[in-house]
Amino acid sequence: MMTWLDGSDAAAVLSTLNLEEQYLLGREAGRTMSRIHAIPAPEDQPNWTQFYNDKIDRKLTAYVRCGIHVEGAEQIIAFIEEQRGLLKDRPQSLQHGDYHCGNMVITKEKMIGIIDFDRMDYGDPWEEFNRISWCAGVSPAFASGRINGYFDNQISETFFPLMALYMATNMISSIPWAIDYGAGEVDVMKREIKKAMDAYDHFQNVVPKWYRR
């Protein structure tokens, strides 16, 4: 598929660029995501509070039943339970569904393109940040730019706690998801969870260490 696109894998290209270039591309990725989220969800969408709380319940149940323990899982689950109230009255919009640098390309002109729209859905636009740790693992500058570009530097005080909730939910659900793909994928997810736990000081903070204004 990549050979048919005017660009190269963003995750590979970012490491060859300087920090300013990485940051500016992140800002553009953030602005692009905000344009996607400008498309509202249909009015008949299920209530987000109930929908996502049910989703959390399913993911926590799947984790408990999968039989694989992750170090720090108790802290992750406690944080999720404490933050459920943030889901109240959240808006919904179109979502890309898998928005991270692995689904982006960078052209020779250093412009960014978004690919793989096969998971498009509707939901809280801020849920779309639940995979940003994959970007931060490649380039903290790019990940920071994504946030700053999305909000044009006007970041709501509720954003970081809610992003942390969505990331925590994604973390705990990644283990039962990975089982079908083998022990190697489970180990990958365990490493990613450890990185995220370090970034959040085991959820003692809601702003990840890699973020820079």
TrEMBL record:
Transmembrane segments: none
Residue ranges of every copy of the Aminoglycoside phosphotransferase domain listed in the record: 2-151
Pfam family, one: APH
Protein's name in the database: Aminoglycoside phosphotransferase domain-containing protein
Species classification: Bacteria, Bacillati, Bacillota, Bacilli, Bacillales
